[in-house]
Design brief:
about 500 residues; alpha+beta; 2 domains; six-stranded antiparallel beta sheet; globular
Length: about 500
Amino acid sequence: MKKITKKLKKKLKSFNPKLKEECGVFGISANSDASALTALGLHSLQHRGQEGCGIVTFDGNKYYSEKRFGLVGDNFNKEKVLKNLRGNYAIGHNRYSTTGDNTLRNIQPFFADTNAGGIGVAHNGNLTNSITLRNKLVEDGAIFHTTSDTETIVQLIAKSKRNKTIDKVIDAIFQIQGGYALVMLTQNILIGVRDPFGIRPLVIGKIKDSYVFASETCALDIIGAKFIRDVENGEVVFIENNELKSIKPFPNKKVRPCVFEYIYFARPDSILNGKSAYEYRKNFGIELAKENNEDADIIVPVPDSGNSAAIGFAQYLGKNFELGLIRNHYVGRTFIEPSQKIRSLGVKLKLNANETTIKNKKIILIDDSLVRGTTSHKIVKMLYDAGAKEVHVRIACPEIKFPDFYGVDTPTKKELLAANKSNDEIRDYIGAKSLKFLSIDGLYRAIGFEKRNETYPQLTDHYFTGDYPVEPVDELGDSKITQLSLLSTASNN
């Protein structure tokens, strides 16, 4: 049965049209319910990673750790488990692997003993020089127990000759490159770090006398914490003696958050720069409607990712928004494939056409992004098979032409449809009557900018432009190394 389930999960991933989320991190200081509140925070961040979850706590004398495969609600839902995670300080992590195998040893937070005491590390993002750093550390005698780039950070902290833990952390982050947000725990000190460009998100909240670090504001909402501010790009914040302290060790850079937090990753109710992700996504739909030249009977989203943009699109044009596709939210966890014969059904495991709504209708189909195009092809065919008169596809972001190296699991460039085909070729491939993407300037207008600053872009938007704020040292081109234990093709064995 396990083999069948594993095969099914692999199959379902192949029909996922989306970029894979990064990870979710959470930390809390000086709270008697630290483990329970961390579990709740991770639950609200579940959309950022579903492969595994973990919590590390500290009670003033000892560290405690629990790591599990699967969802937070399936693993940290019993009082007994949470009671074993003793202490008033806790950090937690939801895993989606972009580097390293999906094995228990790779589930975070990681913990290590150093000459300055124990330290737990939870990491959202990806290091672009982890292979280079790992090679050097191995040459110097370091022994790695995981294939995750996060362990590289732990090793660098442990190797530092500085006395104070916070100084060791600063030593480490000066050596790493990429997009990252770190939440760390050491003897009654909670530490948060954001990369110099602020590519990966991290926010600060407060509940009574406890400070909270989290990937998104929705994690603050679930525990009743008040949002204080974002951790600034290149900032190290830490809670010591119930006081929030800040160090900015890097030279000043303009912040460039990841554009996909606005488009897809952040939960719709999370606040980004003063507005909910939902509002931004509605704005994408409005700007897309302004650039649209096709009339239609109804506006249909690809659920759930296209819902917000489709609402904005329909409202601007004064058209009916209809659920022409119905999503099965449970298939990924509970469905067991009964026979080899149904493998051809593919996308129907997750989506089905609402026939009576779309029959004989001219449809504009809205989605937030198009990656490989395989699922778009199946959805368009499904709508036509259900009786749609015409299907016009509109994508609420520009064409994705370049891979990511900062914690988002994008395909290689050769797998990205828009990198290799013209608009007309993509349209023909997915079987749509017409196809349009939101323009770059339309995207920036929707977020609140007049246009993209070509000299210094306001966002990390390399997916569309190829403009990487941090050049990938280790993973250039299509030959990506995804498992850090494969340091070399040569062997002396």
